[in-house]
Amino acid sequence: MTVLVNGTPIEFFSTFRGLRQGNPLSPYLFVLTMEAFSSLILRAEKKCFIRGFKVMGRSGEGASISHLLFVDDTFLFCEDNRNHLVFWKWVVIYFEVVSDLKINLQKSEIIPIG
Length: 114
Prior knowledge:
This protein has 114 residues and is an alpha+beta fold. The protein has helices at 26-46, 82-99; strands spanning 4-5, 8-9, 53-56, 62-65, 67-70, 73-76.
């Protein structure tokens, strides 16, 4: 592996281990990865495969919320619609394949509201 420093490659070096918890780069890589996940969700939302919920402000303006990312938690919102749940499943599977990260289903849950 090599790294560019000021546009110039430095000497090659070998890697023995990946990043581990506590590494100063870990939070930044997590943010970059979640940004890619967020972009994937927004693309699916623009194509009307999934739809979040609308939050109205005092002035009557609203914002659509399909997901929230906080530290290492992700909240996904959708209508009570089987098709939307299926598309959410495919978005998550696609993200797993592309990022090589796995969703821990034992720590995941679906909470119906309303």
